[in-house]
Write a structure and sequence with these properties.
heterodimer, A: 240 residues, globular, B: mainly alpha, 5 helices
Chain lengths: 240, 102
C-alpha cells in the first residue's frame, strides 16, 4: 500500500509539471494585476496560496482596487467560483467512499480547473496521493509565480508569457480529445460546448455574461441535456 | 472607509474554500440516481471544452498563434500524446508563430 501511494504521488508530480509551468505564467500575470490593485508581494503571494483561482483572484483584486466592501467580495467569489461546486460534486464520485475527512479537506483545497482535469483523467478511483503529488508541483508554481509577478512586473518578455499562457489549454485538450476519439457522444459534446462558448463570447447580449457564469450555464445545460438523452450505463460511470 | 487587505484575502479564501470542500465532504456515498450520475460523468468534458475555446485564441498576443496551438493540440492529443507533450508543444507553436507574425 505504501509503495502504491509512492507510485501515485510520483505520477501526480509528473502530471503536475505542465500545471506548474502554466500556473507560474498565469500567477505571474496575476501578480501584475495584484500590484496594480495595490497589494504587496507578500499579500499577493498569500492570496494565491489560499485561493488558487485565476478568474476568482483577478475579480478579487478588482474588488480590492475599488474598495467595494467585504460583502461584495463574498458575493463575487460565490458567483465566479461556483463552477468549483460542480467539480467538487463530480470529484466526490471519483474518490473511494472510505476516504477520510483529512484527504477530502486537502483534495477540496485544490479544486481548480486544471487539477480537476488531471484527476478526472485518472482511470477508476483516485488515490489521494496522486492529488498530493499534483499539489506539490502546482501550489508553489502558482503562489511563487504571483509573488514574482509583483516583484518583477514586466521583466519577463511578453512573448514568453504569451507562449506559456496556452500550456493550460493544451493540457485540457490532452484530457478531452482521447475520450472524444472513442465516444461519438463526447466528441459531439466537445464540439457543441466549444461552439456555444464561442457564441457566448462574441454574440451581442450573450457576451455580457461573465466568463465564470458562462462556464456554469453551459456546463449545466449541455451536461443535463446529454444526461437526459444519453444516460450512461452503469459500467461507463465512475469507478468502472 | 479604508478596508484591510488581509480581511479581503480572508473573505476570498473562506468563500472559495467552502464552495470547493462542501460537496466533497458531504457527499460520501456513490450517487445512485442514473440522471445525476450521467450528468456528473459529462460535466468534465463540457466544462473543459467551454473553458478552452475561444479562450485559447484570446490568451495569446496574436490570435492566429492561439488558433494554431488549438489545432496542433487537438492533432497531438488525437494521436495519443501525453499531457506534458501536448502542453509543451502548444506553447512552442505559439512561441514560433508569434516570432514569425509579430
Amino acid at each position: 500500500m505504501l509503495q502504491e501511494n509512492k507510485t501515485w504521488y510520483l505520477r501526480g508530480m509528473r502530471d503536475g509539471v505542465p500545471i506548474m509551468l502554466g500556473y507560474a505564467a498565469v500567477g505571474f500575470t496575476l501578480g501584475i494585476a495584484a500590484r496594480n490593485a495595490g497589494l504587496t508581494a507578500f499579500q499577493a503571494f498569500l492570496a494565491s496560496l489560499l485561493n488558487n483561482a485565476s478568474a476568482g483572484e483577478k475579480a478579487g483584486f478588482t474588488v480590492i482596487e475599488h474598495n467595494e466592501g467585504y460583502i461584495a467580495m463574498a458575493i463575487m467569489m460565490l458567483i465566479i467560483n461556483a463552477r468549483y461546486l460542480l467539480m467538487s460534486c463530480s470529484l466526490s464520485q471519483k474518490i473511494s467512499p472510505k476516504t477520510g475527512l483529512i484527504p477530502r479537506l486537502i483534495i477540496g483545497f485544490e479544486v481548480t480547473d486544471e487539477i480537476f482535469g488531471v484527476q478526472m483523467n485518472v482511470p477508476g478511483m483516485i488515490n489521494p496521493f496522486y492529488t498530493y503529488g499534483v499539489i506539490t508541483m502546482a501550489l508553489p508554481g502558482w503562489s511563487l509565480g504571483t509573488y514574482f509577478g509583483v516583484v518583477m512586473g514586466n521583466v519577463l518578455p511578453a512573448n514568453i508569457v504569451s507562449a506559456l499562457s496556452v500550456g493550460l489549454y493544451g493540457m485540457f485538450l490532452a484530457i478531452i480529445i482521447p475520450p472524444a476519439k472513442k465516444s461519438r457522444i463526447i466528441a459531439a459534446l466537445v464540439v457543441i460546448a466549444m461552439a456555444a462558448s464561442c457564441a457566448f463570447a462574441y454574440l451581442p447580449l450573450l457576451s455580457g455574461v461573465s466568463a465564470g457564469m458562462r462556464v456554469i450555464i453551459l456546463t449545466v445545460v449541455i451536461s443535463a441535456a446529454a444526461a437526459y438523452l444519453f444516460p450512461v450505463k452503469e459500467e461507463d460511470g465512475y469507478g468502472a | 472607509m479604508e478596508r484591510n487587505i488581509y480581511v479581503y484575502i480572508l473573505v476570498m479564501f473562506v468563500v472559495t474554500y467552502l464552495i470547493r470542500v462542501l460537496p466533497l465532504t458531504l457527499i460520501r456515498k456513490p450517487i445512485k440516481n442514473r440522471f445525476i450520475r450521467s450528468f456528473l460523468y459529462y460535466v468534465p468534458y463540457v466544462t473543459l471544452a467551454v473553458m478552452t475555446f475561444p479562450d485559447i485564441v484570446q490568451a495569446t498576443t496574436a490570435p492566429i498563434a492561439g488558433l494554431l496551438a488549438l489545432i496542433a493540440g487537438i492533432a497531438l492529443a488525437w494521436s495519443g500524446r501525453s499531457l506534458l507533450t501536448v502542453a509543451v508543444a502548444s506553447c512552442a507553436v505559439v512561441f514560433i508563430t508569434e516570432m514569425i507574425v509579430l
